[in-house]
């Protein structure tokens, strides 16, 4: 029962949006995933611990502890872990540059890919303000973009000091844009723009709970998804290929394997090698789904393909 599963070793793991400390966190699936994968480097791409929620009531079951222990054990076994705080674990931004139990805290990082490309790794909430006001910023030019980024940080520090909840981009998007697909597309475009400003070939982020991997905006855009609903992770294999894994699909396979194993009789070793689940192709929305409400944003035309899994861009982001 406690037999270690066959472990897949990858070059890098990118994980985000665990929201530990909330009931939504799928800690059991996450622990199962962490048992199956070992990596040279793990990037924790923000919203790992949900500090905003913890303040309004302590929720910290054993499984959430187990996730933390599992990560610390990996550090002891030689994995390099880099933690890039998000908006829900923004309290850690005060510790950027520090090291906790071997876990390095950074605001953002540049990942040198095995494919020879460089990737900006960042949670992504830094762009909420820009995504919201993209329409105006396009008029006002480059300085406004920088100003919006700075304002975003400032506003959230003030909100945090006042004990307010985090203002949610995705909740706003649902109300305001009617169609969250527009918002996902804008977010993806903003992050891709930022990668270009950093003069790198791609960006790897989280925040909107919508796993993705594409090159629609001139650079590679990779989103790690979340462990509240979609249970997704991004791996970089040693050959340089990136892949989105969906662990909920994998769970189905695990239980059917177990059933098959029981039927065949005990004592037999079943090859429990988890198969990588390929990223779902982004379904294309009907053109008339895109409402005129946000129609003037520069990114909207390209946003229509971003997919129908809009429930992933949840209020927790
Ligand atoms: Mn976030």
| Ligands present | manganese (II) ion
Computed Rg:
20 Å
Helix content: 25-40%
Uncertain regions: pLDDT < 50 for 5+ in a row? Answer: 266-316
Largest sheet, described in full? Answer: 7 strands, mixed
Which H/E pattern describes the elements? EHEHHEEEEEHHHHHEEEEEHH
How many individual helices?
Answer: 10
GO cellular component, one term: membrane
Domain Calcineurin-like phosphoesterase: 11-210
Pfam families: Metallophos
Biased composition (Polar residues): 303-317
Q: Care to describe what's here?
A:
The protein is α/β, with parallel strands linked by helices and 317 residues long. It is globular, with a radius of gyration of 20 Å. It has one domain (8-312): Metallo-dependent phosphatases (Purple Acid Phosphatase, chain A, domain 2). The strands form two sheets. A seven-stranded mixed β-sheet has the order 4-5-3-2-1-11-12. Strands 6-7-8-10-9 form a five-stranded mixed β-sheet, with helices on one face. The protein is 35% helix and 17% strand. The chain starts with 7 loop residues before the first strand and ends in a 14-residue tail after the last helix. It has helices spanning 27-36, 51-55, 62-76, 128-132, 134-140, 142-161, 169-177, 180-197, 247-264, 300-303, and strands at residues 8-15, 37-44, 80-83, 99-100, 103-105, 109-112, 118-121, 202-205, 212-214, 220-223, 232-236, 242-246. Residues 266-316 have low confidence and may be disordered. It has ten helices and twelve strands. Bound molecules: manganese (II) ion (MN). Manganese (II) ion binds next to loops.
């Amino acid at each position: 029962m406690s037999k270690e599963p066959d472990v897949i070793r990858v070059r890098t793991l990118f994980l985000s949006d665990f929201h530990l400390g909330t009931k939504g966190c799928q800690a059991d699936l996450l622990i199962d995933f962490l048992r199956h994968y070992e990596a040279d480097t793990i990037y924790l791409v923000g919203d790992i611990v949900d500090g905003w929620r913890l303040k309004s009531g302590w929720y910290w079951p054993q499984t959430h502890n187990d996730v933390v222990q599992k990560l610390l054990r990996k550090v002891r076994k030689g994995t390099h872990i880099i933690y890039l705080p998000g908006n829900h674990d923004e309290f850690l931004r005060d510790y950027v540059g520090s090291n906790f139990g071997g876990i390095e805290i950074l605001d953002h990082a540049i990942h040198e890919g095995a494919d020879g490309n460089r990737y900006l790794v960042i949670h992504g909430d830094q762009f909420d303000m820009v995504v919201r006001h993209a329409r105006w910023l396009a008029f006002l030019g480059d300085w406004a973009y920088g100003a919006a980024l700075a304002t975003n940080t400032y506003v959230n520090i003030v909100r945090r000091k006042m004990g307010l909840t985090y203002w949610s981009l995705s909740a706003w998007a649902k109300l305001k844009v009617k169609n969250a697909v527009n918002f996902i597309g804008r977010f993806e475009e903003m992050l891709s723009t930022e990668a270009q400003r950093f003069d790198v070939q791609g960006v790897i982020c989280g925040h909107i709970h919508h796993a993705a991997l594409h090159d629609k905006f001139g650079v590679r855009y990779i989103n790690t998804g979340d462990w509240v609903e979609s249970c997704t992770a991004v791996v970089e294999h040693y050959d340089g290929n990136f892949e989105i894994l969906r662990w909920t699909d994998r769970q189905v396979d695990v239980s059917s394997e177990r059933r098959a194993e029981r039927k065949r009789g005990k004592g037999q070793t079943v090859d429990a090698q988890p198969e990588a689940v390929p990223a779902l192709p982004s379904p294309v929305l009907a053109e008339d789904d895109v409402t005129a409400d946000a129609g003037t944003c520069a990114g909207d035309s390209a946003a229509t393909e971003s997919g129908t899994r809009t429930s992933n861009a949840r209020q927790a982001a």
